[in-house]
Amino acid sequence: MDITSGGPWTGTGLDPLSGRVLEFLVGHPAAGAEAVAEGVGVPVEDAERALRTLEDELLVLRVAGRPTRWRAGPPRSSLGSLLARRRGELAQAELYMEQLHEVYRAVSGSHAPHLVEVLERAEEVAARYAHLLRASRREVLHLAKPPYVTGTETAYGEGRERAAGEAAVQDGVRLRSVYDTEGFTDEMSLETALRGTAGGGELRLSSGLPVKLVVFDGTTALLPVDSDHPAAGSLVIHAPAMVAVLVALFERLWERAVPMSLESRQDWPVARQTREADIDERTHEILHLMATGMKDDAIARVLGVSRRTVQKHVSEAGTALGARTRFQIALLAAERGWLDRRPGPPGTGAGAGPAPAVRA
To answer: Which of 15, 20, 71, 248 is the most exposed, having the fewest neighbouring CB atoms within 10 Å of its CB?
Structure first.
C-alpha cells in the first residue's frame, strides 16, 4: 500500500511513517525495532520514534521480554477508538467555528458579509476564485464577456486548466460556459475556452451577455462590481435568493446559446448532408455562428479556417436558399429548420483548415 503522501492516515492525525510502521506490524506481529526499521526502510531511531507515537495512540503494545518487541492491536478496535476521538475533536472544532462566525457577524454589523462580500484587489479576486473552484463538488456555471483583464480575468475563466494559484475544477464536476460572441475573437478568450472544453467542459456562444458571472455548486456566485471595468473589484454572493436568480439567468442564457465543440476543429465532418438541402456540416456550423451575430473574421478564428472559406460557405448557403443578404440567409435557414439541429459530434473528414496556434 502506497502511503508516502499520507494516504488513508491523513484523517487520523498519524504521520506517513507511523502509518507504514503500523502496517508492517499488522503483517509481522511481535517485531523488534530493528526488524521494523529494516522492514520499512528507515533508521532505527526513526522507527523507535514512530513506535512510541503509535503506543501513545494505543495502536501498538510492548511485548514482555528482552529485547523489546512490539505488536499491533486489533485494527478494528484500536483504529476505531482513534477515529472516534478524532471525530469528537472535529465536532468541537465545528462548534467553535460557529461561535467565531457569530462574533464575526456581530462585529461586521450591517455590512452582512455572510450574504455579500466585496473584493477590492485583483489578488483577492484570484485567490477567492481559486478557493471556490477547488471547493466545488457538483457544477460550475460561467458567463464570459469582454472587456478582459489579464491575470484576474484568467482566474474567472480557466476552469479545468490551472489558474489562480493552481486552481482547477475537480474531477466529476460539470463545467458549463457561455461566451459572448463579441469577445470570442481574441487570443485570451479562445485559449481559455479551449482549456475548459479540453477537460470535458461544455461550451456555448451567445451575443449580448448582460454580465460576467461564475456560480459554484448553486450556492455561491462571483461577479464583477462593474462589468465594464473588471479591475474595479468583485462581489461574492452567498444570499440564497440572489444566487437562485443568477442561476436562473444563466440557465435562460444557456438554453438560447449555440453549442460549440473546440476539441478537434480541424477534423469536424464536412460531408454529412441534411434532408432539407445540399448543405454540409461545415456550412451548418457557420450558419449557427452567424445566427449568433458573429462576423466572418470571428467565425473563421473559432473554426480554425480562413475568412475566405467562411465567405464561400455563406455564399453557397445563400445560393441554396435563394437569398442575397446575410439577413435573408439567416432568416430562411431558420425557417427551413437548419438552425434547429444541434451540431454533430466531431468526426473525421476533409476540407477544414489548420487550427490556429494557441499559447501554452
So the answer is: 248
